[in-house]
Amino acid sequence: MCAAIYIVSTVTGYVLTSALLLKCPTLLHRRKRERFLSKHISHRGGAGENLENTMAAFKHAVDLGTDMLELDCHLTKDEQVVVSHDGNLKRLCGINANISDLTYAELPPYLCKLGVTFQRECFCEGGEDKRIPLLRDVFDAFPNTPINIDIKVNNDTLIKKVSELVVKYDREDLTVWGNSRNHIVKKCYKENPHIPVLFSFPRVLHLLGLFYTGLLPFMPLKEQFLEIPMPSLLTNLLMRKALFQHLTARGIQVYIWVLNDEEDFQRAFDLGATGVMTDFPTRLKEFMDRNGISKPQ
Fold first, then answer.
1. Region of poorest pLDDT, from 14-23, 154-163, 278-287
2. 25-50 pLDDT per residue, tens
3. Does 233 have pLDDT greater than 60?
4. Would you say 258 and 47 are in contact if contact means Cβ atoms under 8 Å apart?
């Protein structure tokens, strides 16, 4: 009988403490400093409105007032950091060659028409700008715009060179980087712990387990950005207002990607997501303006 009472009281104490810290995490954890806040995020610069990852796409999104640019990086044969989602140029340029096997000068231009990955049967036709840009071109052109960098390959030189560029352009407070693979995120954090990192996919699964077992409020988290794909089974488990509120209270921003219609925009913001990543920055801006969703100060 005494053992049963002890077990019940212990479990009750754990549940109550977990619930309290879930709502008030700063009782245990220092809130992370939010270097910037992003509600409107342009995926690949807005791949549904301009050719993805081009300077034209980035300029259009920034002129529109986006809070953040999302882009992807690879390394050329002559060790130039370029902005491209694919490592192979077949889809983008119609040439079966890897970026890593070509010098920057040898890279071909984009095709005139590219499919929009996250929008079925949708294609974007570009204008004059079909050049694969250097990361430093983007940093030069948009010195005050937060940028979300996806390190696409497990390459120590790429990670080091991206870090060097971030430091050179004084962007440690305007950059977040990482990848879905945990070993890449670990390398990024080791290379430069001053640049905030994303949750990798294994760490998202770990976060999920911590949340549903009640352990999350007790655990420290080094990451500052959670990016969730939608729709997916994983998203249905993660899309919990209590989880978003807890992370936000700890200074961790929650982004949902890649959303391209108003129903999904609404659902994400209703659940308390910090921001939405979209291929259609104009569509998202019009939705936010119409629904009184203010830009971060």
1. 14-23
2. 999 999 999 999 999 999 999 999 99
3. no
4. no
Nearest to 254 by CA among 217, 283, 228: 228
* CA proximity to 99, closest of 118, 114, 113, 82: 82
Kindly list the domain boundaries of the chain, sorted by start residue. Answer: 35-71+145-290
Query: What pLDDT does 128 receive?
Result: 85
Fold of 35-71+145-290: TIM Barrel (3.20.20)
Indicate the pTM of the whole model: 0.94
Using only the alpha carbons of the chain, give its radius of gyration.
21
